[in-house]
DNA sequence: AACGAGGACAACCGCTATAAG
DNA sequence: ACTTATAGCGGTTGTCCTCGT
């Protein structure tokens, strides 16, 4: 026989996550880490399947996520990477610490793709559309840089050739970084992991939130620790996640996470590598 | 103010590679 | 060696929001 099934889908909740569910999941993971996604919903008291929890964490709740719109430079890099990697979103996302594959995929489908089409560039082949229609062979094309340039022209009348050079050098830098990272990774990955864990662990979320709770008002309290033994969680009970996130947003400079990119480069190679490292695989 | 269209994005589905039993 | 669950990935769908009429 193989493993136990991940979840029987009977009675499981689907659709958008509520604040309370986010609260429970985040609470659980911050307190316990992730040992096995199959067990997470059960232990966290959620009526979701492990897969759904994993997705929610990776795409929305992870503390190292970068929030906000994509910069022009990021757009350029995405176009460059897409021209080389195609729809391998996770690979592309690995070049953007704090961005998820889902986020990049959505951004590509809703914005970049359209821009390229408007500019007469086929978003699949990165060739001019007329050329693509003639079924030009799919060799490495030179249109990507042109499309980037066109987009920049469209967005800004102050485009200079320096920008293109910068985009090129940015991309080259990304590649170089990647190589460097792969080399250095084996050396001090553990130390950096510890640093990251310290960073997360140093946030005394429970006591801090308790302080905040004293001034909070009207959120309905919800048990965040049902089905869990005492002491498994910190004392986050009364506040809502949204308040917590809002407060943390102002309290915690998310940019500082971004600034950690250099030090936490190993996170690039996987969406939650630190979990892989810090937690044994489910037995 | 009401309605519909389109956009943006979160979440789900289904497939594959890998690992556990 | 084989079976089967899991994690991860990319494609697709559903829902909410905004804007125009």
From TrEMBL:
Keyword field: DNA-binding, Nucleus, Repeat, Transcription, Transcription regulation
Biological processes, Gene Ontology terms: carboxylic acid biosynthetic process; regulation of DNA-templated transcription
GO-annotated molecular function: transcription cis-regulatory region binding
Biased composition, class Basic and acidic residues, residue ranges: 157-169
Protein's cellular compartments: Nucleus
Region described as Disordered: 127-169
Domain HTH myb-type per the UniProt entry, residue ranges: 9-61, 62-116
SUPFAM superfamilies in alphabetical order: Homeodomain-like
Gene3D superfamilies the record matches: Homeodomain-like (1.10.10.60)
Keyword check for Hydrolase: no
Domain Myb-like intervals: 9-61, 62-112
CC terms in the record's Gene Ontology section: nucleus
Protein known as: MYB DOMAIN PROTEIN 40
Organism annotation: Salix koriyanagi
């Amino acid at each position: 026989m193989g493993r136990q099934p991940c979840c029987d889908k009977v009675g499981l909740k689907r659709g958008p996550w509520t604040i309370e569910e986010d609260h429970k999941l985040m609470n659980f993971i911050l307190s316990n880490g992730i040992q096995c996604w199959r067990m997470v919903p059960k232990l966290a008291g959620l009526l979701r399947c492990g897969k759904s929890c994993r997705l929610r964490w990776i795409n929305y709740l992870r503390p190292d996520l970068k929030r906000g719109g994509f910069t022009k430079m990021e757009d350029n890099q995405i176009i460059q990477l897409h021209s080389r990697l195609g729809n391998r979103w996770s690979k592309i996302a690995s070049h953007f610490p704090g961005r998820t594959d889902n986020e990049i995929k959505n951004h590509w489908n809703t914005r970049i793709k359209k821009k390229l089409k408007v500019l007469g560039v086929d978003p699949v082949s990165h060739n001019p559309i007329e050329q693509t229609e003639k079924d030009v062979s799919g060799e490495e094309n030179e249109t990507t840089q042109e499309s980037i340039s066109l987009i920049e022209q469209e967005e800004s009348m102050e485009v200079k050739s320096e920008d293109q050079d910068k985009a090129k050098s940015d991309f080259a830098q990304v590649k170089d970084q990647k190589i460097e990272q792969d080399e250095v990774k084996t050396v001090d990955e553990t130390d950096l992991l510890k640093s990251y864990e310290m960073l997360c662990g140093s946030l005394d979320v429970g006591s801090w939130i308790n302080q905040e709770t004293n001034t909070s008002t009207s959120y309905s309290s919800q048990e965040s620790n049902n089905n869990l033994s005492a002491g498994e969680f910190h004392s986050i009970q009364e506040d809502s996640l949204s308040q917590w996130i809002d407060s943390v947003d102002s309290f915690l400079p998310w940019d500082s996470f971004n600034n950690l990119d250099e030090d936490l480069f190993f996170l690039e190679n996987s969406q939650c590598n630190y979990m892989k490292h810090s937690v044994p695989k489910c037995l």
